[in-house]
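Agenda item 2: iron/sulfur cluster complex prediction
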Amino acid sequence: MHIYGPVPSRRLGFSLGIDIIPFKTCTLDCIYCQLGPTTQKTIRRREFFSPSEILSQIKKKLSSGQRIDYITFSGSGEPTLNLVLGQLIREIKKITSVPVAVLTNGTLLTRKNVRKVLMPADLVVPSLDAATQDIFHKINRPYKSLKVKEIINSLSQFRQEFKGSIWLEVMLAKGVNDSLTHIKKLKKAISKIKPDKIQLNTVIRPPAEWFARPLNIKELKKIKNLLEKNCEIIAEFDKKEQIPLSENLEDVILTMIQRRPVTLTDISASLGKHKNEILKYLNFLLKEGKIRPVSHKGLKYYEPS
Ligand code: SF4
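Presented output:
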């Protein structure tokens, strides 16, 4: 299963998620990752799955008549690790006018061929949480050869080459990358990159590591004011801001959790739904205070509050 949704997203409207990476295959192992720890940390690009199979799933969904505002490459790991990403974007552009977005951690944009792959996309949302190598290691725990300075330079290069929109996401974790000194360095890096928007986020969803903690709204606003005018806070503190999901599926998941503690993988396998789609519902139930995450033998379970 390579597609999920369309799921409602505050930033992208109804977004059809495309997942072309095996679960938690990534160039980073971010302490805040809501998918849990990275199991395959790599910078080697591979095909992973057959592009024709992925395209046929997308075509089928597009012909279903459901509202789709964006086709979004995101999912279980870093999408630019897939060698056929460029081919897929080009093929999608041939069959639909729905805009294509790519959510990426930006680490492979140091390679010219990877930047080229993203050219036909309409929107690229790279993330940048660190401006120094030291903080890059603390928050993103990168593959050993990755250098944040080179990544910042390549994001600036990409800005000059790419004609679409760039929304830069910055994830802030308390006591890790939120010091005034570091924010000033991030500001300098961002001024080189010149994104169309800067989107500030914090660790609202259950993170991979317990020590990844959120900033409060006051702290985020202070940082927003220190950054550029085109900076906005996207962390969803207020549950009223959430676009309603399918109540039926929400109830089914809640009933499952009330029966016994279950993991994300358990729910996804039992309902035949993609993990990212299930996460949307889990986050909603967490925000409503109906469930809570608990750790047991290294696995994250959800149980009633
Ligand atoms: S880049 Fe994304 S998928 Fe990879 S570890 Fe960080 S948050 Fe998780």
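Discussion summary: Residues 57 and 63 are 10 Å apart (CA to CA).
Owner for follow-up: CH.
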